[in-house]
Amino acid sequence: MNLPSSALADYTDTFLRDAPWLRRRVETIAFLDVDTVIRRTTLDVGQAEVGAASEGCPFFPDQPLVPLAMLKKDLLFDFSLRDRSDSALLVAPREVDAFFAWSTLCIAANKLLEPVGWILSTEISLHLRSITFDFPHPEDAPHDPNLQSWGIPTDWSSVDVRLWHFLLGNESFARLLREFTFNFILLKQLEVSSASQLVKFSYQQSLPYSEVLFLEKFGIRPVQLAVTAPAIGWARSNHLLFEAPEGLALTEVELFQIQRQVADTTAPTDSYEARLAISAAQVYTTSSITRGEHLVAVSMRVPIAGYLRAVWLTSVVLAVVLVLARWKLDELLRVMGTRSEAAVGMLLVAPSLLVAYLVRPGEHAIASRLLRPIRIGLCLAASGSYFGAALLILGWKSQGLKDAWNAIATLAGLFAGFLTVIIGLTQLDLNGASKARRESARRSVVILSVRE
Predict the structure, then answer these.
(1) Which of 4, 278, 307, 366 lies 20 to 30 A from 389 at CA?
(2) Is 287 exposed, middle or buried (0-12, 13-18, 19+ CB in 10 A)?
């Protein structure tokens, strides 16, 4: 594997362009947290298409190495590849997939250099091999204009430096080099005897764009998590299934394409099919969709039924009790003189019920994040009632007692009002999701323009 293979370059180019042997791709995505998911993918590989595309390749003509996916290089640390029967499969060694990438880059470079009378030097060829095999520099990001991984070695001649700058100045070559700087080709040796084979792989991924915004933390709007979808447009049929985190309901799903240059407003807009359910959201695309950088935005809410409704009703009861206690504070003080234990006990019932809602064993990490502000308000409202009961026990009867009760009742009322607003907004989103479930249809891909 000391010389680049033009047959492998053509094979890899076919894979990068349309991968005709990938008949169907089904990917299930489960959220571990707002920025972490587990992706489980099943591929239906057509062997006839593999045989036609791999003809002339130097490796295993009877059992060709099949490119299945482009994955981040760091996923090699947390990756599982299995067959139809769920038996573990071996991934091709890094030297092999790096040779595929290196051959592709060298042949592409030669096609650019030959028309202007230049040839690819040994130094640049070895530098390309190092880039494809090694991990990117720790400070490099996928969309940085200049990567430290592409740095020029100090022992290069001035001619090599000119050639390197010429290659990087070509947009298509720079895009291909960037692809192989951060990604590797998942290769698997498959039999060509059967008509098709199923291959399954899974890995854990950190999401680069997902975070919970301020309004989402307080439930003013549903939390929207952006999941990268690098394989869209790569198979004849692409099916993404997003599982709802336990204790949350999905309210919307939408597909975006990121444009890092000025978008062509005259170009036709791609379309996809979306289906929404309470516990899952599905996105269907075909090979007709434009390859590019895609994101799927999944919106979710804490459902009203169950925990949220119980907290809301209890907070309303607490607010009513505290407001009535402030209104009848003088009568309450008289009662304290004869039946103090009963009066204080009545004030402690509601906060005791609220505290029971603070801990939910086994709760999903995203649900915990979204319920955290409610729990903080819950603690403050419950603490206010305890504080008011303590003032009565201590025998306060001055204006300070009335001011304290004004603050306690106001705090409880504001918290109950806040929860009422959250309940209303949540109900609106859930009603919209219910309507979307009845009207699942084709939608247009939304273009997001991003300035570098």
Answers:
(1) 307
(2) middle
Pairing mode, if any, of strands 65-72 and 271-276? unpaired
Phi, then psi, of 446 in degrees rounded to 5: -85, 130
Which residue type is seen at 156?
W
pLDDT of residue 338: 46
Sheet architecture: strand order including 446-449? 223-228, 293-301, 249-259, 446-449
Tell me the one-letter amino acid at 210: S
The DSSP string of 302-336 is: --IIIIIHHHHHHHHHHHHHHHHHHHTHHHHHHHH
Residues forming beta bridges with residue 83, ordered by sequence position = 199
C-alpha distances (whole Å) from 338 to each of 40, 328, 331, 332, 343 are 67, 16, 12, 10, 9
Average pLDDT of each block of 10 consecutive residues along the chain (452 residues)?
83 87 91 92 87 72 82 77 79 88 95 91 94 92 88 92 94 93 89 74 85 87 90 82 92 85 57 86 83 87 88 86 76 57 54 59 86 84 74 68 81 91 93 77 69 52
Strands 183-189 and 65-72: antiparallel
Contact 204, 71 (CB under 8 A): no
Q: 3-class DSSP state for residue 288?
A: coil
| C-alpha separations of 125 from 132, 163, 172, 247 in Å | 11, 11, 18, 53
